[in-house]
């Protein structure tokens, strides 16, 4: 899906610097595809083909090195018996600078600046290996911060999908300032709960407050697997397929509206794909009437992966997170060059790639 658009802001003076950025967000399914086959080499090839400036990852294990394909670990995790599973010998390298998959990905793709935010030191259903988000960048990162969105036993009752304590995991947001040539922009990668919209709504409020505090209320992207969707984004037959899936799983009918997406919009964020659709260049073929689905790669049902942009200038929401140094992060005008969802079997999600130009905007004095 390609389009060209501008997000116009009511500031008196125009930019003096333009910063071009290719951002890619991808849930990498803990370094495996939908069939739990090691995906590192395919992931490296895909990222090298896309050549992003910034790569945001969800469901990253770190430090991690995949055990041999015939190791019982894979069968245990595939059968959803991975909670608390001790990792095989050698799969948690003591020195992650060269051995770990995250470092190898960073080195092999020319994205040398790397940050990781662990959501749960005890691991996830992929085993007892630190689990969270990562940001890899071609350009230096500064002011890297992590925020963990904790859970309690009371959250077991949220939503209509039955869950156990093992299935109730903390999630994290990772924020960093990317030092682009001619300026900087904030990037926040997050991953929300997979079962309860009520919990996701609380988490997105935390992530928004964390991002605003980290970037001083200035221009930034917030992206990742938000695990939320809404009926308006799906064709009738797609919505029916979702409803049938929920029924087959014994769940209540899916929510037709997303409170997560509503909150983002209310607080000044723009979905970059919607921006493309609303202001498509007439020289480019019209976009499909409904956004591409991003999950799952073996049976696409949902759009769960997003890139949102906040131009800056908003009041910073109250937060327990300390305010970051927002130097060189001013209000910005965003020019969308393209928004693509790439069909790929590297993971159980599709990656989303956005090309933008950021123009700094200064208030008149």
UniProtKB/TrEMBL annotation:
CC annotations in GO: endoplasmic reticulum; membrane
Alphabetized GO MF terms: catalytic activity
Domain Endonuclease/exonuclease/phosphatase: residue ranges: 24-349
Any one GO biological process: GPI anchor biosynthetic process
Protein name: Endonuclease/exonuclease/phosphatase domain-containing protein
């Amino acid at each position: 899906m390609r389009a060209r658009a501008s997000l116009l802001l009511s500031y008196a003076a125009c930019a003096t610097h333009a910063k071009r950025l290719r951002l890619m967000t991808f849930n990498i399914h803990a370094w495996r595809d939908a069939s739990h086959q090691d995906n590192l080499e395919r992931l490296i090839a895909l990222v090298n083909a896309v050549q992003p400036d910034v790569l945001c990852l969800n469901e990253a294990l770190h430090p991690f090195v995949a055990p041999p394909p015939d190791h019982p670990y894979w069968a245990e995790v595939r059968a959803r018996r991975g909670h608390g599973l001790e990792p095989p010998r050698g799969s948690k390298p003591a020195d992650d600078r060269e051995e770990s998959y995250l470092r190898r990905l960073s080195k092999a793709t020319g994205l040398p600046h790397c940050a990781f935010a662990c959501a749960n030191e005890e691991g996830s259903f992929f085993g007892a290996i630190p689990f969270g988000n990562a940001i890899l960048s071609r350009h230096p990162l500064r002011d890297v911060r992590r925020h963990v969105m904790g859970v309690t036993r009371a959250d077991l009752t949220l939503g209509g999908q039955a869950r156990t304590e093992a299935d109730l995991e903390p999630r994290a947001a990772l924020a960093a300032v990317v030092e682009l040539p001619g300026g900087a922009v904030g990037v926040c990668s997050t991953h929300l709960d997979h079962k309860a919209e009520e919990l996701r709504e609380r988490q997105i409020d935390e992530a928004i407050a964390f991002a605003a505090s980290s970037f001083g209320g200035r221009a930034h992207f917030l992206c990742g697997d938000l695990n939320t969707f809404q009926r308006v984004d799906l064709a009738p037959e797609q919505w029916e397929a979702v409803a049938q899936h929920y029924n087959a799983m014994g769940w209540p009918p899916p929510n037709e509206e997303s409170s997560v997406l509503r909150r983002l919009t209310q607080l000044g964020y723009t979905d970059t794909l919607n921006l493309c659709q609303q202001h498509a260049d007439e020289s480019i073929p019209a976009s499909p009437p409904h956004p591409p689905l991003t999950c799952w790669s073996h049976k696409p049902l949902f759009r769960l992966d997003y890139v949102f942009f906040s131009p800056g200038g908003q009041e910073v929401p109250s937060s327990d997170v300390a305010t970051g140094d927002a130097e060189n992060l001013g209000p910005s005008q965003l020019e969308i060059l393209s928004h693509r969802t790439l069909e790929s079997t590297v993971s159980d999600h599709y990656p989303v790639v956005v090309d933008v130009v950021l123009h700094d905007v200064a208030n008149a004095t």
